[in-house]
Amino acid sequence: MAQLLDFAGGRKPLTYVGLAISAISQLLGFVPYVCIWLVARDLIEVAPNWQAAQGIAAYGWWAIGGAIASIAAYFLALMCTHLAAFRAASNMRKQTTEHLMRLPLGYFDAHATGELRRVIDGCAASTESLLAHVLPDAAGSIAMVVGMLALLFAFDWRLGLACLVPVVISICCLMTMMSGKGMEFMKSYMGALVRMNETGTEYVRGIPVVKVFQQTVYSFKAFHDAIADYARMAQDYAGTFCRKPQVFQLSVLNGLVVFLLPVAFILAPGEADFPRFVADFAFYAIFSAVIPTAMAKLMFMSEASQMAGDSLGRVRAILEAKPLETPANPQPIEGGDVRFEYVSFAYEGTETNALDDVSFEVPAVTTLALVGPSGGGKSTCASLVPRFWDATAGRVLVGGVDVRDADPHELMDKIAFVFQTNRLFSGTLEENVRAAKPDATREQVLAALRAAQCDDIVAKLPQGVDTRLGAGGAYLSGGEVQRVALARAILKAAPIVVLDEATAFADPENEALIQRAFAKLAENRTLIMIAHRLSTVVGADQIVVLDQGRVAERGTHAELVEAGGLYASMWADYEQAASWKIAGAQTEAPAMKGGEA
Ligand SMILES: Nc1ncnc2c1ncn2[C@@H]1O[C@H](COP(=O)(O)OP(=O)(O)OP(=O)(O)O)[C@@H](O)[C@H]1O
């Protein structure tokens, strides 16, 4: 709770004020009950001469006044706690979002954006309801229990004791449900709930695959099992474990008057002031109705605090993620060369190195192609240049400076990264390109689009560059999206470009355009390209072949083919596949000219 309240910052005291007012509000809520008792007492004293009862109306007004004051105080309490809760939730969202901005980009590979969104938004919302509603209610309930105990003993301690018995039984029942085996149940129950949510998300994401392969719902066994597991857990907890204590608890609380009657019968004959005794009994009989409400509120409190504890844990996990270390005295990056010196890297939680003792140098304004078998370490290698991750051993130098000694903003300015799966956000085509350089003029955006061979895209869109893309707007094909991403990189005008070339968009027309865009991008820039198709690397100044995280070979295309190693065999496979393609195309369409094939 203390950790949670820290998020409220300057509004933290408002929570305490709110809790105090909520407690006062509950105590004011007793006033009508006391007034009813006073009325009953006065009436019983003068019975049957009812007219003789004085001050009945005054008690009525006091009761109304007490009830209104209690409600008004409750509103005031909620206003205070809401102000603090909103601040705590908004600070929690701000702090986690700000912290995310300082985390290495690789963090977002390991943590899905959906999961992060749920933590930032969902968890803040769940703590908000705890601070705004549950906590003041709990303060009220505690005041109610304390006040109740005082009142119970103030009127007639023997009847008070009779009221207390079911309360104690009820607390014992609650404790049985909430401690020991009950807590274990709750933990497994929460775990089953989380698993069901996770597998549910996986299931929804996989629906296209299920449809394509004509699988039934049950083909998603994990989701089905998680639902069954959750259902079993919920049934076990509610139906088997909680049934007895819950039934017992509710019965004793709601049948409180049953405990009063025998005590009243035993005590009544010996009472000197019988009318007073009857009035006291009436008070307890009416007042006992308050007790189950107070207990129910305390029950909600424990459930909500368990949920908030879980949420806080998830938020803390984000806040404790190690941010990118920034140097106290950053060194300026001069030049566009990139150098890997004995670089090794292992992903968090893995034992084998994804990169092992990798060294190479890319002089400024040259092109380096990273090739090799799948899983060889190409993407990992490229992602160390813009510091998506930091090397575990060795160092990566950009412009002669270790990337860890450079100002992260300057590093980002110097490097443009084109991902394999590029994302366009909801906005116009112009806005999407301008994202790379917010102060670019319209002419510069258009020039970048032209250089990235996007003229056909602009021409086909109904409002040209002003057409909205994404949800509710126009959609672009994969190859077209890649060219728009290249336009972004061209507009950014960074001296170094890291390019993860996509394999999926290889139709001949798009490929030719993408190749031309690559050529434009490489003009006057250092280009590090992850190549999945060997056709794109032939002209590279240098090719590094990565296999199982190690540099297997290095050289130009001609040198590597000559060397007859891994690259030569990959090239031979590539040529063979290409000749199959041509042969296949000629068989299918004998009239097609060789060049078109
Ligand atoms: N986020 C990650 N967490 C743990 N291991 C990872 C992660 N990303 C990649 N790896 C592992 O690191 C190794 C290198 O992967 P990497 O993606 O760099 O290879 P690649 O050569 O780019 O492969 P591909 O050509 O298939 O894209 C692989 O063994 C892979 O399983």
TrEMBL record:
It comes from the Bacteria. This is ABC transporter ATP-binding protein. Residues 338-573 form the ABC transporter domain. Residues 17-232 form the ABC transmembrane type-1 domain. It is found in: Cell inner membrane. Pfam families: ABC_membrane, ABC_tran. InterPro entries: AAA+_ATPase (IPR003593), ABC1_TM_dom (IPR011527), ABC1_TM_sf (IPR036640), ABC_transporter-like_ATP-bd (IPR003439), P-loop_NTPase (IPR027417), Type_1_exporter (IPR039421). Belongs to the ABC transporter superfamily. Siderophore-Fe(3+) uptake transporter (SIUT) (TC 3.A.1.21) family. It is a multi-pass membrane protein. GO terms for cellular component: plasma membrane. It comes from Senegalimassilia anaerobia. Keywords: ATP-binding, Cell membrane, Membrane, Nucleotide-binding, Transmembrane, Transmembrane helix, Transport. SMART domains: AAA. GO terms for molecular function: ABC-type transporter activity; ATP binding; ATP hydrolysis activity; ATPase-coupled lipid transmembrane transporter activity. The chain crosses the membrane at residues 14-39, 59-85, 134-153, 159-180, 247-269, 281-300. Its main location: membrane.
